[in-house]
Amino acid sequence: MKTEIETIAGETPGISYELIVHRFEGTDASAPRVYIQSGLHADERPGVAAMHFLIPMLEKAEAEGRLRGSLTLVPHANPIGAAQHLYGEHMGRFATGTRTNFNRDFPAPGEDGIRHLDQASAPVFAERRLKSRLLELADGCPIVLDLHCDDESVQYIYAPEALWPEMSDLAACLDAEAALLWDSGADRAFEEAVFEEMLARAPDGDLTGHCVTTVELRGQNDVDAAFARKDAEGLYRFLQGRGVVAGDESPAPALRAGFVGKPIRHVDMVLAPVGGTILFHVNPGERVEAGQLVAEIITNPGCKDGSVEVHAPQAGYVLTRRIRRFIRMGDNLLKIISDTAAVASRKGALED
After folding, report:
1. Mean pLDDT in the chain?
2. What are the respective helix, strand and coil percentages of the chain, to the nearest 5?
3. Integer Cα distance of 236 and 67 in angstroms
């Protein structure tokens, strides 16, 4: 493994950030190239923990001559957000200077249809140059994994509908409980920008063998050695199945019983009708029926009519819920993968 440290200049004198890039050189030029990053939302740490265990596994495979494909790994993909603390609380989801989500607004093709990336010396905000560099590192890799997590959540993945069910092998290896399938890149998250470039590099439209995804490794507080080892082992099994690492004779894992795979348009974003203290009545991973009580929000403690009930808009599967128990009116309370198209979503099925 070779490690490179790249410097991203800040917007003012004396400020810069280090982007650490690990590279593995495979022995087979025909094997898939892989890009994996974690910590793009810098307040999400399960992916970083998984990388801590995955990297030694890959080093061992390299030392034993079993590493066929080349890999690029960026464990801390957002050093800008990693440095953001306000009164002792880590932020890391939005660029504080521009209020832009670090996983939105990635560079789009211009009128000429070509994606124009910002160079390291471009006179633009550091976050834009970081986003361009991450896309450059992923370019040309048919397998691109962006490791994230949700608030409180089961483990699930996002996948382009065009790559499903081929990408179900990743969900099976990770023992994921759900997949959300998308067909447009309106939010221009990292995976959407990468997929767009994959399509541009495949003029015949054949993306067989490709995989690009945001992997949601449960919730923000699900960071421990057991989870991290399990996730690293799942990623490693996936890489074996795709021919990046020489495999063994063990059978490929199957999707877990009860796996839920639905188009993203089936996600009901249940919003808080009032502000207050949350009492949840359902957990991620549970099924609910239409009209079922899922939460109540305390607005006037101890008083008659001092709380407001929230009910499921339709039958479905509870995917995520808010991690903090105080909420504002209009904030997202739960995500439910509904059996039919969503009726409770706002502009889309992703938070800002």
Report:
1. 95
2. 20, 30, 50
3. 11
